[in-house]
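hey so i finally got around to running the thing on that chain from the lab meeting. sorry it took forever, my laptop kept dying and i had to restart like 3 times. anyway pasting the input first so we r on the same page abt which one it is
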Amino acid sequence: MIAPAGDTTQLAPGAPAGPGFGATVAALSVAQVLAWAALYYGFTSFVLPMTAELGWSKPVLMGAFTLGLAVAGLCTYAAGSVIDRGRGRALMTAGSLLAALGFAAWAAVREPWQLYVAWVMLGAAMAMVLYEPAFAILTRRYPTRYRQGITTLTLVAGFASTLSFPAFAWLIGSLGWRPALWATAALFLLVITPLNAWALRGPAAGHAPPSDDVVADATLHEALRTRAFWLLTLAFTLDAFVMAGLWAHMIPLFAARGASEAQALAVLVWIGPAQVAGRVLYAAFGQKWPLRHVGTAVLAGLALSMAVLATGTSVASWLAFAVVYGLSAGTFTIVRGGIVPLYFGRAHIGRIGGAVASVGLVARAAAPVMLAWLLLAVPGYREVLLVLALLGAASVVAFLMAGRPRAER
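ok and heres what got predicted. didnt touch it at all, straight out
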């Protein structure tokens, strides 16, 4: 018999219930924006000061971050399995503590291998505390409101890059890069860990009872035997590859197109606000639309943005790319979090979502290097961008071929 998808944690007599939906989502949102700012966006701020002090090459440094992303991909399924066993709170609390340990280890590095060990820990922490586990836990705890929770979570966390770059610039400029990392370790230990532990305390207050048809929810084994699982995985993997490859090559790409650093930054600064705008628009108008239609539109927008960047030669065309890309990428994060339960139910969302996401995370780790190899075989970035546009178009086709979700039939 399949266990109910809702939170079934049993409390001792007289023990308090967990926080309500609003409080849980608010606490997780704060934890997410801080965790994303540090774990995902923070690395690039440390490359130049570490190079200046330690004399290590950029490939050595970038290799550590690539390793971390690969480890995150490999750990995502295991994290989902823990969530399906009702241990989501323990997972996200332990992941926050592991991140604190990883940043402390990073602050103390003297040899490259030590940096790589630190990023193995930080990569595992990514799988335990970022979007994927948070989405799965919200889906299980709040089966009737999880899309609203995911929308709020991604809306707040959309400001992570806006927070990360100036915050780390100030910390590194004021304290140095090692103390800045110690401060980040303290942030995880003293702020993010307590937030995750408190937000997920006890069963969900006021959560809906499990539905009568929960036994119809797919297990991972059953999901793996469906065409929809593999097509969704392909669509999300292509999407992850395109976005990760683009970000890794963004600055040299603009330089190759003849843009100055100031022009490139003037364009890129619009991507973050456009991501947030996409999520706001979805929260205001899009929740009544079938999620499959939203997903098709935003995947098409991602492919279109690659084509615009490939063919555009003016600042105006680059700004159009930034807006279209930001709107699409921001909204697709919501789609990715909400679409899998519509196909396979909630009972095993941790394992199924983790299996889908893990392939995409590995592709994200490989994308920068693979595009660098592609550059050796084609005339320049224009051709690379056209390849990314084609991959984006292929993701649209795969997404459509997955068919209508069971919940929308």
